[in-house]
Design a protein that fits this description.
It is a single chain. By secondary structure, the chain is mainly β. It has five domains: 154 residues, Jelly Rolls, CATH 2.60.120; 103 residues, Immunoglobulin-like; 207 residues, no CATH class; 82 residues, Immunoglobulin-like (Sandwich); 74 residues, Sandwich (Immunoglobulin-like). It is built from four helices and 48 strands. The N terminus is likely disordered.
């Protein structure tokens, strides 16, 4: 359960703030590129401390890192500049840290003080660890050095450094506290949700001396404010999560501004005067099954990589068809793996991988160990708001790849990745004793930094590649796989992934999909054109994520009624042989009144279908306003008619169905 909760929190939008009115003795977040000015190392392993660009502890990049190499056995200290503890008898210690062990080892980490320039150290907190993971320390501390004016603090490691690969530290704080003080630590709402009602939760830390009995808080979304008083009993230095009684209905395909504020504590003012956080929450129009993306950095010259490879093989064997996988070989240790490529090096730099083995699950660092069963299942069970499908075929040494990347919310500057892997290799056998390797990346198409694209909600973008694999390390052209995924390059979150269908033709999606709801009959009409290539065996039709027709044979469906005014989503997926599917085409269902034919109106709209120009002829010279909507109900243009004839240039419109509304009457126009 601990691993599940940890993973879930890692994928929430991170928003942390420090208490404003506590008096800080030390407040170090290690955000520079080198050890903080005036900080030194003492004891053993003085050359093992440095700054890493990672955020493995759960804070913001960067963080302090203790490496196992060069090996030592004893105590190694990272020591602060002197601080003044005059008139301070006790304080609070806060520290994030993450140990990464080799096998079943253990070691001690702690914090100590010294008032004689490091000759004598007094430990204020320590603990022995034997498991990888992120830990948050929050302790009341005291020391014989309290009350003195020239005191050093240190983070120390005690043990054999060979027991670990690395130990990370971040957000090292020592501060005095007020009687009543609360820190709003996070808004516990994912950055991406499906549209509809969702709870608004937040977590606080009692940074004061007194227990928290009452807490008044509010949340504001898009200008709407909800306030509530919470009753609790939160002891000093404890965390607690709260949830508002009033949910919020998120609109489909919209980014909402959410803020949470604490206004009073224990029926009075909080000593922390600025206790508010904010974030953006994007509501997707639908969701789909997630296929977690595993990225694995390894090398055939790496001894510790063997056990991780073995564990990953067991994990994937238990979850066939539920994952996508790419393994990048490293240029170290020693001479490194013979199959190392500069493209793999680009991914190492992107993730700040300084040594192997190291694994990532949907862009989140799992440390120097295999992805755990709990973490994989937890991520697999999280809904995805994007979809990926593709296929490849082979002509001699040439690989042809077609891939569609579809989203349920508007994506901008997103990166699509395509890697060609070999399922099993033996030619890169080296020094670690392994005789074969799996999912080894041979080529990244077209760019190791991803292919930048913008995707409108309910639509897709396509990538097509042709590449001569004879220039790569491929051993067998009949043993390839292609990994596809969508990633936010800034946050590193991967939205979804999929293997391309192997040695076959691409599963093309439907074209020109429209969804119209008649306001009077409440009848929903879906229509679409066949895919531009291929012959589907049928179509799967979904309304609000529910499959209502399977393997449907027609291109028009009008056997579904909607009797409420809620938002609904319709989607059509093309199905091919052996159960292969395309990405879907999805639309927000909108009500259209008086959709009429041209000959019933006081105006004519032609030609229909149209390519570049639509002409409107008004009768009796009437003045009108033309409002043009797309099938999602968004107005794309507004034009005034002041003459009998007008021409509207639609050459820049994307192909599809548009609705020309003239004085309350609407005509459907098809743009070729």
């Amino acid at each position: 359960m601990k691993n599940f909760l940890l993973l879930a929190l890692m994928f929430l939008f991170p928003c942390f703030v420090s208490a404003q009115n506590n008096v800080y003795v030390i407040n170090e977040s290690f955000d520079g590129t080198s050890l903080p000015t005036g900080w030194v190392t003492m004891g053993n392993g003085t050359n093992n401390w440095y700054i890493s660009l990672s955020n493995i502890c759960g804070g913001k990049p960067n963080e302090a890192r203790l490496s196992w190499s060069p090996p030592f056995n004893g105590i190694s200290r990272l020591v602060s500049t002197p601080v003044d503890l005059t008139d301070i008898s006790s304080a609070v210690l806060a520290l994030k840290h993450y140990p990464s062990f080799f096998g079943a080892n253990q070691a001690i980490v702690g914090v100590a003080t010294s008032s004689d320039n490091g000759s004598t150290w007094n430990s204020v907190w320590s603990e022995q660890y034997n498991a990888n993971g992120a830990y948050n320390i929050l302790e009341n501390i005291t020391s014989p050095d309290m009350g003195k004016s020239n005191v050093l603090f240190c983070i120390y490691f005690e043990g054999n450094s060979s027991a670990i690969s690395d130990w990370y530290f971040d957000d090292f704080e020592v501060y005095t506290i007020e009687d009543i003080s609360v820190e709003l630590t996070s808004i516990d709402v994912p950055a991406y949700v499906k549209y509809g009602n969702h709870e608004i939760s937040f977590t606080i830390k009692n940074t004061g001396n007194a227990a928290i009995q009452t807490l008044k808080a509010n949340y504001t979304i898009d200008g709407d404010k909800i306030e509530q008083t919470f009753y609790a009993n939160v002891p000093s230095m404890e965390y607690q999560q709260f949830t508002f009684n009033t949910n919020f209905a998120f609109e489909a395909n919209k980014k909402h501004e959410l803020s949470v504020e604490i206004s009073s504590v224990n029926d009075g003012n909080d000593d922390n005067s600025d206790n508010a956080l904010s974030m953006d929450v994007t509501a997707a129009m639908s969701q789909t099954q997630r296929t977690p993306m595993i990225e694995h950095f390894s090398s055939s010259t790496c001894g510790p990589c063997v056990s991780v490879n073995t564990a990953m093989k067991a994990l994937t064997a238990n979850h066939q068809g539920e994952f996508t996988y790419t393994k990048y070989t490293s240029n170290g240790p020693g001479l490194g793996d013979p199959y190392f490529t500069e493209e793999g090096g680009t991914r190492m730099t992107y993730y700040n991988v300084l040594g192997v083995p190291q694994t990532f699950l949907d862009g989140t660092d799992q440390g120097y160990v295999a992805v755990t069963e709990d973490n994989f299942v937890a991520r697999r069970n999280e809904a995805a708001f994007a979809n990926v499908r593709g296929a490849f075929n082979i002509e001699g040494n040439i690989i042809n790849v077609t891939a569609d990347f579809m989203s349920y919310f508007d994506m901008e500057n997103i990166r699509a990745f395509v890697t060609v892997n070999e399922k099993t290799t033996t030619g890169n056998v080296s020094t670690n004793g392994e005789t074969e390797f799996h999912h080894v990346m041979m080529k990244i198409l077209e760019n190791a930094e991803g292919n930048i694209m913008n995707i409108n909600a309910g639509e897709y973008q396509r990538l097509e590649f042709t590449y001569d694999m004879s220039s790569t390390n491929v051993e067998d052209m009949n043993d390839l796989e292609v990994s596809l995924w969508l990633q936010d390059y800034e946050t590193k979150e991967i939205f979804n992934s999929h293997y391309a269908y192997e040695y076959t033709e691409h599963c093309y999606p439907v074209q020109n999909f429209s969804a119209l709801l008649n306001n009077e009959s409440c009848l929903l009409t879906l229509s679409w054109d066949a895919p531009e290539q291929g012959t589907p065996s049928g179509y799967n039709i979904y309304i609000d994520d529910e499959l209502i027709e399977e393997n449907y044979q027609e291109n028009t469906f009008n056997d579904f009624t909607i009797n409420d005014d809620k938002t609904h989503i319709a989607e059509v997926v093309a199905v091919y042989e052996d159960g292969k599917t395309s990405v879907g085409a999805a639309k927000i269902v909108k009500i259209w009144n008086d959709v009429i034919e041209n000959d019933e109106t006081s105006f004519n709209i032609y030609p229909n279908p149209a390519k570049d120009i639509v002409k409107i002829s008004a009768i009796n010279g009437q003045s009108s306003v033309v409002r043009i909507y797309n099938v999602m109900g968004m107005m794309v243009d507004k034009i005034e008619i002041n003459s009998n004839n007008i021409e509207i240039n639609i050459s820049d419109y994307t192909s599809g169905v548009y609705f020309f509304n003239v004085e309350g009457k609407t005509v459907k126009v098809i743009k070729n």
